[in-house]
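Run SDR family oxidoreductase through structure prediction, thanks.
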Amino acid sequence: MPAPAALITGGTSGIGRATAELLHERGYRVIVTGQNPETIAAAEKAFPEEIVVVRADARSMEDIDRLVEVARERFGTLDLLFLNAGITRPRPIEAIDEATYDDLFNVNVKGQFFTLQRCLPLFNDGGSIIFTVGIGVTRGMVGGSATAASRGALLPLVPSLALELAPRRIRVNAVSPGAIDTEIWAKTVQPEMLEEVTKATASRIPLGRFGTSREIAEVVAFLASDAAGFVTGENIVVGGGSGLSV
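Sure, done. The structure for SDR family oxidoreductase is below.
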């Protein structure tokens, strides 16, 4: 029996990359996508050669169709789809123009929706689909309105798809990371303020620190495993207690 097959969008850096490495360690065959040539090159250099890296832009239906064809040729079927690709544009609402709005929704919603749609014919019954959403969707973030709206549009998909795909025993869940120490976090803060803002943010997290990409990867691996065989339609927040009252 072949090893389970996983497709991870946005898998060349941060959470996606950590998840690809973890799943590979646990015996999965893995394809990841990326769009940035620098992160693609770095991932190809660092990954074991068995992990397949495909350049694909979530905004492009042509790229999505090509990606699915690569998955079909390499694996034949899929057992896990981790819809992790996404962008963030932290800025106040008055600074959001139409192009930024369209970009956020094209990548964070349209890309995920149609990647899932195109992948479904490859899915084995009993598989697992996992979206990355984010804690800002439900608990707020200054300057995060447009990004949260686009990521938040994924949440209503989860219970509806869980019901729709239940006859095939395909489980659909979401993971919502809180403050995670990734390259994306560093890019959201002015370099000269990064250390100060990081310390201030960590001080407001009950567990007193940022999370790691590996910790999110462990939750994704759990949701994909038989241990989560009765978990579907859920959004798992992984944020160190952020947003809890004391």
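The radius of gyration is 17 Å.
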